[in-house]
Amino acid sequence: MSGAECSPKNLTLSLTIPAITVQDATPLEGDNIRDLTVRKEEEDDGCETDSEDNSIEQDEEIRTKNEPMGDPKVLVTVTDEHSSSVLPDYADEDEYNRETDTSSCTKAKFDSSVFESDAAAKATPMSDRNNAIPAEYQAAEDEWEAVETITPGARDTEPTGTGGDVPVIVGSLILYEEVLSHFQSTNLTEYIKDIKTSVQRTALGKLKHYLFGPPKLASELHEERNFVFTLGLCPFDNSCSIHCKILQTVYRQLTGNKFDCPRYGSHWEQIGFQGNDPVTDLRGMGMLALLPALNFLTDNKTLPLAREIYRLSLHETQNFPFFVMSINITRIALQAMREGCLNRECNKRKQVLPILNIFYVGLFYYLFQIWKQQHKTIRDSGFVIKGMY
Hints:
By secondary structure, this protein is mainly alpha-helical. It is built from 14 helices and three strands. The protein has helices at 51-66, 93-123, 126-131, 135-145, 176-184, 203-212, 222-231, 241-255, 291-298, 303-313, 322-338, 343-349, 353-373, 381-387; strands at 12-16, 35-39, 73-79. A three-stranded antiparallel sheet has the order 1-3-2. Helix 8 packs across helix 9 (291-298), helix 9 (291-298) crosses helix 13 (353-373) and helix 11 crosses helix 13 (353-373). It starts with 11 loop residues before the first strand and ends with a helix. 19% of the residues are buried.
């Protein structure tokens, strides 16, 4: 057969492969093979060939029809990029037959490798295949199991090294009435001599205050007034469980945390203290700095307002330290009591500390309204506090 008579332009090979996924396929090798196109078996190429090509295609079609159905078939078309024909011209029929035999051998090897992989998969028990865990997943699981379980709790002393912390069992929140009862039963007489219940005035100031100032506080309320001022001098005691519970309660009420927090740590800055130890911010006001705030956060009537103010303190641009602001407001309220501004209301209700707490809430609400409506920032805090005196 001459080269002019044997110029096949299109060769369609039918490969029968099992219905499995081949993860690593080796590219086909051969001279003048550039493009690999997969087509459906039903597709008709529509190309015209000479009489000998038509006979080859008819034989392939008859053989395909006689094969049993079931396994999918892949049609492979080989194209040469340097020629308009699908396959290059062959010098003679023997060369063409050699190429065809090479393709058949490649198909046989491919079928053999697929059969071996399928047989190996079937040989593996189904239980082993289901229970097999990749190495990286197993390593991650082992690492997770090695993590120590951390018990949330508080520390009684500040950590000074890498020693273990002392966990504290999560306790219930302490009530304002319980704290008040504790302080009323505590001996605070050592602080009486240092309290200042009134401001120093000049002779003209005294006359003006007598004529136009507020009324004097009723004598039966002097003891309770002194009690309030002594609380301002009472320091925080780490060994007292009541003192520590006050801190835990205000923290949990503001943050919504269900667990006690460590005694020292950066988490105190979250509610507006200036450092890892909130006690450093209480030195100017003693335990009185916590008492109005505790009442504010444990009273169901005022708790929603307290949390709304706290949310504003966390604002992206209008943020401010909540508890630092709270201590400043307590100081303003105590100064108002010292100047006698609350005497009239105290005499009317025959109470002192509850009036101080109400005044504290009113001041905080006033600050909240100004801060929110006038879009104040931390830079304006000094002017806002000064305007509240």
